[in-house]
Structures are given as C-alpha cells and as structure tokens.
Amino acid sequence: MRKLVLLGLVGLAAQLVDGSLGMAYGVTSTTLLLVTGTAPAAASAAVHLAEIGTTLASGAAHWRFGNVDWRVIGRIALPGAVGAFAGATFLSSLSTEAARPLMAGILLALGVYILVRFTAWGTPQHRLGTPLRRRFLAPLGVVAGFVDATGGGGWGPVATPALLATGRMEPRKVVGSVDTSEFLVAVAASGGFLLGLGSAGIQFDVVAALLLGGLIAAPIAAWLVRHIPGRILGSLVGGVIILTNTRTILNGFDVSSSARTALYLLIVLVWAGAVAWSLRGHRLEQAALAQRQRDVVGSEAA
C-alpha cells in the first residue's frame, strides 16, 4: 500500500513537471519503477497505459487554456503513434541501452542551445507564427515516438526541444501541443506492449496509482504553463533537458559519486542563475513595454 501511495505522488509530481514543461512524466515514473526492480518493458508499459489517461486530461486542460496548435498536432501525432508502436514491440523483445548515450548527447546539445537562447535573448519573435512543415514534423514524430516507447519516456524530451529550437511557436503552445499529441502516442505504445507482453506482464495497480496522481496534477500544470512567461519557461525547459541527459550519459561511464555530485551541483547553479537572469530580463521587458504604452497614451492625450 505504501508503494502505491508513493507511486501516486510520483505520478502527481511527474505530471506537474510534464504539463508545465512538456516532458519528464515518463522519464521520472519509469526511473522509479526500474529502481524497484520492474523489468524495462513492463515499466514502460505501465507508464504508457497511465499516460493514456493523464495525456487525455492534460490535453483537455491545455486546450481549455489556449495552449494548443492543432495544425502541429495533426502533423506530428500520427507519425508519433507509428514510431511508438514500433518501439513498443521492439522493446518487448530487445534492450536499447546501447542507443541511450548517443541520444542523450544529442538532447544535451539541444538543451544547452535552448537554455542559452531563451536566457540570453528571450522568446524569439521574428518567426513566431511561421508554419512548421510536415516534412519536419512527421520524421520528428516517428523518432520521438520510437524513443518514447523504447526508453520509457522521451516524447517530450525529443519533441519539445526540437519545436522550441525552431523559434516558430510560443513555448506554452509547444508544451501544450506536445502534451496533447502524446495521447495518441501513449495509445499506440500501449497497444504494442499489450501485443508483445500480454496483459499478464503489466502491473495494473501501478498503472492506477500513476494515473490517479497524474489526473490530479494535469489541470494545475496547464494553468501554470499559461501564466509562466515564455522566456522563463524556455530557461526551465533547457535546464531540465541538460540535467536529465547528463545523468543518462554519466550512467554509461565509471564516474565517482563525488564527481557526479560536483557536476550536478554545477549544473543546478548555472541553471538557477539562468532562470534568475531570465526573470530579470522579463521584468525589464515588461517595464519597457509599460513605458511605451505610457508614451503612446501621453502622445494621444497631447
């Protein structure tokens, strides 16, 4: 019973992060399940079954708060489902541990880029609203879906930084669209795991605990992403990507615990400084905007 309560709290915390930043529900939940001794395929299966409910609730909440771009969802969700189904059936019989360091390195580079871009220059405005092409979104969906199913999480860490890096969508709409499209990805991955493992290989009590926690957190997270400034949200996302994938890379090498701790502490300090800088930049931007509005009102009154 204590384990199920803990998993429920993990589901709640993971959905708060995922719904606010567009990633990390699967990574957080799967990591804990693996620590408890759950087999990789069974852990990923449980998380994806829970995500059917959490992503549906999260998508509805994001739609309610205007955080969704349906054109992007239409072009990325179905390819993502295809990739997720293929990844789930693949993982049911084969491990993908060897591919994780390479993928983590790519994501780490994207995370550094996003952290620097949003911290130093804020939300890019000159390309916002420019349509994203299907030839970019469809391959992205296939790759993100495959990684998500084989890694127990990865739809957000792959899709969110790639969409943010284009500079063509507001961060809150990137998060909302990625979360909403993940519903089809979770359905397809679950179907693949049920086909490969059978229902006997899935712990449905774990699924229920993760689902309950996620359902409670979904509307709260959608409200948060609506009210977090884009510049700050971009810095937060970049830090999550860097920290998560640094850990994945270090797990593939014989690195002492003291060295790991020092590196994690350095990353957290840089990340905190970046968020503080973004907050300062946002306040200056708001002050400048308010001053321009006062100048316009003054000139009209004159």
From TrEMBL:
Source species, domain of life: Bacteria
GO cellular component: plasma membrane
Pfam families on file: TauE
Keywords: Cell membrane, Membrane, Transmembrane, Transmembrane helix
Entry-linked InterPro entries: TM_pro_TauE-like, TSUP/Inactive_protease-like
Record field: transmembrane: 72-91, 98-116, 136-163, 183-200, 206-225, 232-250, 262-279
Signal sequence segment: none
Keyword Methyltransferase among UniProt keywords: no
Membrane topology: Multi-pass membrane protein
The keyword Transmembrane belongs to this UniProt entry's keyword annotation: yes
Location of this chain's protein in the cell: Cell membrane; Membrane
PANTHER family with a match to the protein in the record: MEMBRANE TRANSPORTER PROTEIN MJ0441-RELATED (PTHR43701), MEMBRANE TRANSPORTER PROTEIN YTNM-RELATED (PTHR43701:SF12)
Record-stated family: Belongs to the 4-toluene sulfonate uptake permease (TSUP) (TC 2.A.102) family.
Protein name: Probable membrane transporter protein
